[in-house]
Design goal:
The protein is an alpha+beta fold. It folds into 3 domains: about 20-65 and about 150-245, Probable tRNA modification gtpase trme, domain 1 (Gyrase A, domain 2, 2-Layer Sandwich), CATH 3.30.1360; about 65-145, Aminomethyltransferase beta-barrel domains (Alpha-Beta Plaits, 2-Layer Sandwich); about 300-385, Beta Barrel (Elongation Factor Tu (Ef-tu), domain 3), CATH 2.40.30. The chain contains 8 helices and 19 strands. It has helices spanning about 20-25, 45-55, 75-80, 130-135, 160-165, 215-225, 235-245, 285-295, and strands at about 30-35, 35-40, 55-60, 65-70, 95-100, 105-115, 120-125, 145, 150-155, 180-185, 190-195, 205-210, 230, 300-305, 315-320, 325-335, 340-350, 360-365, 370-380. The strands form 4 sheets. A 6-stranded mixed sheet has the order 10-11-12-9-3-13. A 6-stranded antiparallel beta barrel has the order 14-17-16-15-18-19. Strand 15 (about 315-320) and strand 16 (about 325-335) form a beta hairpin. Helix 2 (about 45-55) packs across helix 7 (about 235-245).
Length: about 400
């Protein structure tokens, strides 16, 4: 008698890299992302963070949603959907972008890979099939294919990442500029390498057909043996992206199509992503609403804060005075930054209060007792940490 799994359809899917990850996840610290079993961390989040900053690490990006958009109208369709001007994107280049509802609220952010004039790949954090199909309506020659299950992705980040790829035999990888794409032969197929990532550090993303995933893992780890290579999970990723000032969905912003309460989602201008909105190009979804918001200014602004003291401001409320007279915002992300040696945070603040005093109400638990502290916040206009090596071409051979 053959046993059947009554919960087979409910169990998390396994990444094609899972056999190697399972061996290294000695803490069994698993979470979930888009239905995949996903590592929160393997050994220790801070250890993995320091691997990113001082050596190199790998991060499984197979759970990302990946859509292939092809056809004579592919560029026009994407250009009407997203806020950036896709016609300015060169072949074998990547662009970060967002797409919005007609009300100008962000549905999601992601990256567009242009492989040919009629061939693009859109990668994003959440499923977007329905919106892509709606966006393709009315175009005669465009196809949208979900390739999330067939394309494997491995992010390699950190100062020794380029050296590892050189050791792996990828000729002239050092000439790859930020947001460039290059293709290399691999196991009789093709390895696509993009100089992209989510850590604010030197790094690359490696893409192969799913059936070559373990071969890719083994090749990268063989080449990285003397370069301190380690896997890292979501916890270390969150630390690194915060230092770079990168935003995380459902942490720093809420996707418009999944928001319950009115205007609890955000616009590009509220997230300081106005540079992604090109009003010079033809019509795109949300254009009229965003043009009006640009005229009057955003009601909220996501600000980078340097918070005095060393208590991370997790979930804190922000006030205009130390006496907490008026609630003017809230913290979305917070941490003590090892690289910056500072208490940093991202916070949504009512725009009219940005030039005034900012006070953060922080609570901390010590031996089950709650303690409260008011700390002054200072707005920073640049990323907390963005080393020169992140964009150096060629990168130094660490």
């Amino acid at each position: 008698m053959t046993a059947t799994d009554a919960f087979a359809g409910e169990r998390p899917k396994l990444s094609p890299f899972h056999p190697r990850q399972a061996e290294l996840n000695i803490r069994e610290a698993w979470g979930a992302w888009n239905g995949y079993k996903f590592a929160e961390y393997y050994y220790d989040p801070e250890y993995e963070y320091f691997c990113i900053r001082n050596q190199c690490g790998t991060y499984d990006i197979c759970p990302m949603q990946k859509y292939e958009i092809k056809g004579r109208d592919a560029e026009a369709m994407l250009n009407r959907m997203v806020t950036r001007d896709v016609t300015k994107l060169g072949i074998n280049r990547v662009a970060y972008t967002v797409w919005c509802t007609d009300e100008g609220r962000i549905i999601d952010d992601g990256t567009i890979f242009k492989l040919a004039d009629d061939h693009f790949i859109l990668k994003c954090g959440s499923p977007c099939t329905a919106w892509l199909r709606k966006s393709a309506f009315g175009f005669d020659d465009v196809t949208v294919t979900d390739i999330s299950e067939t394309l494997a992705g491995l992010s390699l980040q950190g100062p020794t990442s380029c050296a590892v790829l050189r050791k792996m035999g990828l000729e002239d990888i050092g000439s790859l500029k930020a947001f460039d794409i290059r293709h290399f032969p691999f196991q009789g197929d093709t390895l696509r390498v993009s100089r992209t990532g989510f850590t604010g550090d030197l790094g690359y993303e490696l893409w192969v057909p799913r059936e070559f995933a373990l071969d890719l893992w083994d090749a990268v780890y063989a080449a990285g043996e003397n370069y301190g290579i380690q896997p890292y999970g979501e916890a270390a990723t969150n630390m690194a992206r915060m230092e770079a000032g990168f935003i995380m969905p459902f942490v720093d912003f809420t996707e418009a199509l999944k928001t319950v309460h009115f205007e609890h989602d955000q616009t590009p201008f509220e997230l300081q992503l106005g540079w992604l909105v090109d009003f010079e190009k033809p019509h795109f979804s949300g254009r009229a609403a965003l043009l009006e918001e640009k005229r009057r200014g955003p009601r909220w602004t996501l600000a980078r804060l340097d918070v005095e003291g060393n208590w991370p401001a997790y979930g804190s409320i922000i006030y205009d005075t130390e006496a907490c007279k008026k609630d003017i915002g809230y913290v979305t992300s917070a941490m003590w930054s090892p690289a910056v040696k500072a208490n940093i945070a991202l916070a949504m603040i009512r725009s009219e209060f940005l030039k005034g005093d900012i006070w953060v109400e922080i609570y901390k638990t010590k031996d089950l007792r709650q303690y409260r502290r008011m700390a002054r916040g200072t707005i920073r206009t640049k990323p907390f940490w963005m080393p020169d090596r992140a964009r150096a071409t060629p990168p130094a051979d660490y």
